[in-house]
Write a structure and sequence with these properties.
6-stranded antiparallel beta barrel, about 90 residues, about 5% helix, 1 helix, mainly beta, globular
Amino acid sequence: MTTYSGPATLILTNGARVTGMASLGLNRRGAPGSWSGTFRPNEVNDDIRAAGDGLHLELPYDQVGKVAVTNVRRLLATQVLMTLNGTGPAPF
């Protein structure tokens, strides 16, 4: 599979689990195993806004990949869209 769109859980460095929706894809250019996408959390707090490196993204059926947040963009007063860069094997 080269893309994934659906429910996901972002696991922060402090172990907190944040549910939301992810849209992910393999990068055609660049290193093998390179993937990226976006994550829209269901709830927003300061931990989410400050998220950076060392995170994990868990997809259904316990598929997990390492991610880093490269951008957090405000969509609405209560929503943000996080840009992710994955490292290692894609979990989809």
